[in-house]
Amino acid sequence: MARKSKGLSQRHKNILSCIRDWQDEKGYPPSIREIGSQTQISSTSVVNYYLNQLEEMGYIERHSNVSRGINLIKDSTGEMVQNFKAGVSQLMEQLVSIPLVGNIIAGEPMPVPASDFSYYDPESGVDIARSLLPQGDNLSDLYALRVQGDSMIDAMVNDGDIVVMRRTNQARNGEMVAIWLNDRDETTLKYFYLENGHVRLQPANPSMQPIIINDPRIVEVQGKVVLVIRQLDQ
Asked: Which of 12, 31, 86, 106 is in Cβ range 3.0-4.6 Å of 8 for a Cys bridge?
């Protein structure tokens, strides 16, 4: 995509206005996807292209280690913008981006689709306040999954919600975990119980029966739920 002129195009101006308005309203910068939505640009790569140009021209500053790391330096009139850098610095201290890596079935175990447990693009990360995450956890051990199904509704995990997981291959009785049944290539989200030589995968829905696995060797724990993010607009 060749750049045609040295000045600001209307898209440049729209993106700068979006960044400033978003910062004024919410107190933090928009993500690339949010900029695209607000400026009617469907491709995140196109948004990124214009952001790179704005950075080269000195209108913004970008921080690659945070998904919302855009610092507005000048608006579309060339006027210097005050107090935005502090906002980005505060955001970087308060938020961490957890990769959204796929889906998890909260129902009967289902075959693992090709997209499950495979990394989405970086913009699919979930920004979470550090204060909500368990203290002492290594952030590199955390990942997020989108829930499909309603077997865990009594645990306040509904269809479409996002669960933040800590990678582990072990579980204690009563913990909510992502399970992979390696003989069937199936995955599910359930409460885990090891008892009397078998594994009980317990749903949190009174209309559903537990899943009994007689051979514990086929049950592989993929991660433990540490946080549930409710999707209230469902």
From this structure: 12
